[in-house]
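Subject: sequence -> structure tokens, single chain

Hey, anyone have a minute? Need the predicted structure for the following. Not urgent.
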Amino acid sequence: MSRRVAVVTGLRTPFCRAGGQFKDLTADDLGAYALKEAVALAGLRPDEVDEVVLGNVMQAPDGGGNTARVVAVKGGLAMSTPAITVSRNCASGLESLLLGANKIALGQADIVVAGGAEAMSQVPILFQPEMRSFLMRLSKSKGLWKRVRALLSVRPRFFKPTLPGLGDPLCGLNMGQTAEVLSRAFGISRGEQDAYALMSQQRAAKAQEQGRLADEIIPVALPPHRGQLQELDDGIRHDQTFEGLQKLKAAFERGTGTVTAGNASQVTDGAAMVVLMPEELAHARGLEPLGYIRASAAVALEPRRMGLGPVFAVAKLLHHAGVSWSDVELIEINEAFAAQVLAVEAAMASDAFAREELGLDAAVGEIDRSCLNVNGGAIALGHPLGASGTRLVITLLKELRRRGKNMGIATLCVGGGQGQAMLLEVQ
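Reply:
Had a minute. Here:
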């Protein structure tokens, strides 16, 4: 029997640029911080949590293959609490909420902590296969002479590293190149992309100055001595100008490219967590939920056009939920790239796209900029892959309540050619 699922609490760490303040913290460190605080805010004992579901994309090779379990234990939950790590690339933090909500709706759990964590600073750097083979030979060498022979086989080329990247093996493009595909297909200029990026920065800066972002953030004590607290997102550029953005060079396609470091999401470390439980249990405990998960939808599309995933996902979501676009009062779209968000805007408003791509008679609906990413997005705040979906939900629900609104959608494009969207409501 289905039960309405409440989002009781939602918190996140600051989002900090990779290689910066959080460079010495692992994904499970960050996740444990957020989990512990979310559980405490809900007034739960550690042994009351039935399961932990965590979105994490770049799992550390020494993390035991299940980062969620490490987060659960480091976060102070009972040793008997099961945990599972999920990955749907950029939408992992949204998928974790859906999986947790489904367990509750089906009666398999009463209280689930769900969210995401990503330490982009600690993504492993790989060596060449020849280096791997050498290290294996060396480890198996018995006796001095065999070890010397193994060492003599080393060549300088063995030490050339394979740097981490977000490429798509299905289409052979990296994520920035897929944004270039959309910028050409929809005729989106460099100026339009930079103007959108500036808007994201300005909105995030205002939200930070007015304390709206602080409402969802827990401070993190920084290693090694834990005497310094990181309290704010550090990627927001309060002094950003359009002229400054225009000076940046194309990052993915030299010469004709329009996507730059300034109009793309920042590579970031961070974690976000929510506590989920049935509506009736929340009320029985005297808790006022942030809101409720009403529906969710996932789609797949051509990988080189992965940035359009939100259009397909939102159309499917509205259909299955029986909701019209006019009912949606706020929308959070993960800003993977300015070109990608602008392409989503154009496709959502296009009758031709709706007929040819979605099988609909008319456009899904125009996106009102005053209702879109009102506190800025990933271009300013950053995009820790596994955590972004959860961050969108927390930001959306808090802003709906702040404005006295009821219904909103959180949605992301997904590398590999997917999209996901979730419908949330306050009442």
